[in-house]
User: Fold this.
Amino acid sequence: MAGYLEIRGLVKRFGEFTALHDIDLDIAEGEFVCFLGPSGCGKTTLLRAIAGLDPQTGGTIRQRGLDVSSLPPAKRDFGIVFQSYALFPNLTVHDNVAYGLVSRRKTRAEIGRRVEELLALVGLPDSGRKYPAQLSGGQQQRVALARAIATAPGLLLLDEPLSALDARVRVRLRHEIKALQRRLGVTTIMVTHDQEEALTMADRIVVMNHGVIEQVGTPQEIYRRPATAFVADFIGAMSFLSGTFEAPARVRVGALAFGVPPQDGLAAGAAVQLCIRPEDVQVRNLPADAANRVAVSVAELDFVGSFCRATLDAGAGVTLTADFSSNLMRDLGVELGRRLEIALPPDRLRVFAA
Amino acid sequence: MTAAAPARPMRIGLSRDDLAMRAGLVLLALWLILTLALPLWSLLAKGFQDRDGNFVGLANYITYFSTPALVQSALNSLKVSLICTVIVVPIAFTYAYALTRAVLPARWLFQGIALIPIFAPSLLPGLALVYLFGNQGFFKKLFGGEIYGMDGIIVAQVFYCLPHATMILVTALRTADARLYEAADALGATRLRVFLTVTLPGAKYGLISAALVVFTLVITDFGIAKVIGGNFNVLATDVYKQVIGQQNFSMGAVVGMVLLAPAALAFVVDYLVQRKQVALLTARAVPLVPHPSRGRDLALLAFCGTVAFAILAILGMAVWGSLIKYWPYNLSLTLSHYNLAAADASGWGAYFNSIEMALGAAIVGTAVMFVGAWLAEKTRGFGAMRGLVQFLTFLPMAVPGLVLGLGYIFFFNAPGNPLNVLYGTMSILVINTVAHFYTVGHLTSTTALKQIDPEFESVSASLKVPVWRTFGRVTAPICLPAIVDIAIYMFVNAMTTVSAVIFLYSPETKLASVAAVNIEESGATATAAALCVLIVLTSATVKAAHLLADRYLFDRLQAWRRR
Amino acid sequence: MNLFLKRAAVGLAAIAALGFAGSAWAQKTRLTVYTAIENEQLDPFKKAFEADNPNIEIAWVRDSTGVMTARIIAEKDNPRADAIWGLAASSVALFGSMNMLEPYTPAGSAALKPIFRSGKSPETWVGMDAFLAVLCFNTVEAAKGNKAKPTSWADLTKPEYKDSIVMPNPASSGTGYLTVVGWLAAMGEEAGWKYMDALHQNVAQYLHSGSAPCVQAAKGERLMGIGFDMRGASEKTKGAPIDLIVPKEGLGWEMEATAIMKGTKNLDAAKKLADWSASKKANELYGKYYAIVAHPDVKANPPNYPADGEKAMLKLDVEWMAKNRDRILAEWSKRYDGKSAPRAPR
Assistant:
């Protein structure tokens, strides 16, 4: 079955600069998708092309089977929340939320009921008579959300909606938006540069870089099996070791050699990056026959609260990071300069062509 | 809507809003072409013709550039404009700095006084200077040399240009982020260093703008040069001599074109510079509130006091002059010069015509300028038309009124032009005044529009609300202060404008500013001063009403601005 | 545009009202008349003419000679004026040479002094009054500086008058031009230029209008001004301590004239105006303001004019003046205009 939104061969150029290269993407009905990437990666450009605000240079967008590629924004079906919220400052919260309802031939009473319902939905039941400037950032955000969903659009677009808020409000709103989206079942696309936001909120994440999609997948897939070195680096923490590939399943890093899962498409002798997440480094209860054992010394320790992130020196210029829980630190007496034996489980190692 | 849309469309379709806005933009371009470009061209084209209308190519230009006296005028114009710029900008900067960055008593009063020169026809400083420093002047000895000539032009122009520069610089200095100053303080920077590294760079664009505005005002104005310029010839008086003295439109057009060049250049520079400007004030900026500092505040108070005194002295002299029976031989006071009917057949009629014209220009001008700027700013795509409009809106500031006024005769009075029904009506005076002062109104609108969230139109498109409703319910109300400012600017300028409308009035539509010039020429200096004073009082009353309304009425309308 | 709609509505209402008011009103012709006569003369002239021609109403457009002349020429392709009444004859003659005037010999114009006629048949314009470029001399300032009263143009080059004289710039003002032409006519070209070289050393300023020099002299801004006699006389009437001097070498002069614009839709009314302007009655009116009028039988005696101005009028060739204007102005500008002029340091 075709998806709710189908994007095919989408290209966007600004003069000489190509902001989006040949983007293909399918989004299913009711899905919550995040566009994630560093600034300038094209995620906002893609969102605005979907809305029709900055039309693409080429390619097609189909929404619910209809080709909307050449439709102006006013003829597309979407609601949108901007980073700035773009609330009308001279209108009350009530009038802001009612803004899109007024032109739809509804009576005042109908509109009033709908606005109250929406404000209750976003947790601002008594704020209708206030002006936006009298609300906190988080409250303004909710009003913007209420306004965007007031007309019950089929597609909700959120452009970095949380980035102007402080950390605590942001975390709380994440859950609220996600819950609201589930309740309404509205297909939602959110642009963010915050990986934590994407990982906690999205059904699927679209990781973008330099105008191309690096990977599309569930948060788990993206985190566990990054498809490219960029995704591996961008999402979560990751140690990168430069080495050479030795067929069929071995990577040599300086004097050390690591067994890895079998790799397709890599020629022997190819330069590669060997990657492991800090939490995957084994240090306790190593079986005697554990693969990829390495002797290291603790070169640096960064206290991060619930755990310590250690920089480990394996000699010959090879370093990697590992996360040690407080228990482990105490049990093993980890301190600067302490020598340790660690293992890198082969199934947790990822290999990318350098 | 069907699914049979083309596979790879390269162009986005146009919504009804888009079509309406594009149509509006085309209408605006048409308006600007009809009221500005074509009239200008119908005069400037004469620069390539001889007196009988035969095409002669560049012959007039060759004559011009081989006549030493004419070239000398060009050099004089440049010189006097540069000197005025160099004098006005530092004074205006210090004054604006005091208004925005120091703790001044009666700040509103100083702010108001700085505006006064804008309300005055350019005849007023000329007359006042003669009273003050002329050969019979009260302070002739103080001034030393002759007031007639370059020195007189400079003093009068400084008076006349000061408010323009001060307003720009107050705006530039007001938008400061207190955090920058706190950071500089924390780093132990000296006051001078903070000034040089934070304040000045922050006001850089304002300074450039102010300098260019002053330069252009001085170089295009002929009123002051005519009254007090003596034998010091400048381009603007050369246009006057060619056109009024010798009815030589061809050479007048050549001088007009030469006059256009530096002014146009100044505006291109301004445009390029402003394009690079990024918003200094981010959403998180903390507005700077000046803290008292005895030494600095006293010094700045003394400075502002001096400047304000000088402005009031010039105005006061004009008021006094209007009350003197026969200067300088009978200094007893009388109100008889305010009996306008005795001095001019149109009498008070001209005064009320002026008010009618100024109201018309304020209403029509503000509507066209604000809606126009909104269209130019918000229409999606349509780059070429927006570029054309942008260019046309820059033109008027560089055009001397005399050139525009004559152009209007040639264009609007042409027998084949259906618009010639407008000729001789009040409407043409309004249209001409709107065109003449278009640039500032357009720039003010654009600035106001740039300060509001750029996504309002996107939001309303997503909510399927027609864009004109968002304009009426949101954009225009938010920009109300700017809109009122433009209306007042138009009113004030329409009250004082002379150089363009002097060719266009009819028996029923003679204006007070023109009457003042006529009366002065006929020797009734005191009556001319009286009329100038009336014009100042009228504009000042309007401005005061605005301030009061702002305080007590708009405050309620603008409740949403309060936190 | 509300205001204008309103204005239009008021206008329509007024027209309607006139319609109801009866047939006598309905036939009233509105004559647009361009003029440069003085502000205070507008009303008396209009009333006097309308009293004799109740079916015609005059609508004045008045500005200085230069502005009016420029405007009439600029409107050449679509003239807005029906008639000209009181504009410098040199300007009017220029319109004649541009074929902008309706030839018409007003009734009674044959009785006028010959120089007050265009000399064409039929006439293209008819003169009304003449004004002179006299010397306005401030007696109070003279007493202060102990300066002698000049009696001739030659006197003006005396060193004691250094920086004491103002005169109109001939490039900006018709009065300035006729002053210069007067000298060239009285002294001959070569001597004339030499005289102006000497005079230039004493001229403080060349002003942009023919009125301004006598006004400046009247207000003591300068010791003396060379300019329009009528302005000097009216300032003196207002109380200025000036004497109007007619230099003994004679002086340049200019007339004001009446003419009908070609293509006027109100030709009959315009002819009535031309007839009236040439009448003795009209000349008596002119005589209240000007010392020299066109009608030989009218003894004009307005206050404060110099007594024997008419006799001092130099013989000027109007056509020569027009033909040589560009040349003379170019020469004048080269010699005296602006800083390029050689001038002894102050």
